[in-house]
Amino acid sequence: MNIAIDGPAGAGKSTVAQKVAGQLEYVYIDTGAMYRALAWAAHHHQLSISDESSVSELLQKSKIQLVRENGQQHVYWNEIDVTSWIRSTEVSQYASIVASYGSVREQMLVLQRRLATQGNVVMDGRDIGTHVLPDADVKIFLTASIQERAERRWKELLAKGTQADLADLEKEIEERDRRDMQREVAPLRQAEDAVLVDTTGMTIDQVVDRILQICERTGESTH
């Protein structure tokens, strides 16, 4: 069974998807991390983020790997572990830009579908249920209010010792939503057959339980 989890920035997709995959003993594929790795690499190589052909060419010549180590997913760019470098606010903004490029998404689509062919995967992103895995057995659309998503991000940064302004984070999330929903290629939207789960006011464990219930029901109905 393949599970697609989509939703806007800060809805808790990665955390929830990892936990769901762990409970089901499935493989977790974080597509957002793949775009973040590319964004980090483009910045690292001092490419202009607004130059689509350079960014696309960089991806073509490089290798992205998602590796599970000690229960955590690590992201490798050309054998370099970039996991701890791709979660900054700056990289988040760049990732949203490179993810809007059609040539980049086409390459990522091939990589992501190849990863899913092994079956029993939980994949999260913005366009998994609508574009990457349109035939996924379970499709979830996770969301939460902008205020809640900004607060979660603020707490996350604070825990890492990074100071951030809550109002600025709300603006950034609003901007990312606009960019993700308005991009020409595979924009962020809920698949018609996806189950909407609003996580506002819910704990991570409550969200995970809700998704596992949906998976259980789907599994029963397909037997």
UniProtKB/TrEMBL annotation:
InterPro entries: Cytidylate_kin (IPR003136), Cytidylate_kinase_dom (IPR011994), P-loop_NTPase (IPR027417)
Signal peptide positions (record): none
GO molecular function, one term: dCMP kinase activity
GO CC field: cytosol
Domain of life: Bacteria
Binding-site positions, ATP: G7, P8, A9, G10, A11, G12, K13, S14, T15
Record keywords: ATP-binding, Cytoplasm, Kinase, Nucleotide-binding, Transferase
GO biological process: nucleobase-containing small molecule interconversion; pyrimidine nucleotide metabolic process
E.C. number(s) listed in UniProt: 2.7.4.25
Entry's localization field: Cytoplasm
All residue ranges annotated as the Cytidylate kinase domain in the record: 3-216
Reactions it catalyzes: dCMP + ATP = dCDP + ADP; CMP + ATP = CDP + ADP
EC main group: transferase
Pfam families tied to this protein: Cytidylate_kin
CDD domains xref list: CMPK (cd02020)
NCBIfam families reported in the protein's UniProt record: cmk (TIGR00017)
The family this protein is said to belong to: Belongs to the cytidylate kinase family. Type 1 subfamily.
Protein name (database record): Cytidylate kinase
Name of the encoding gene: cmk
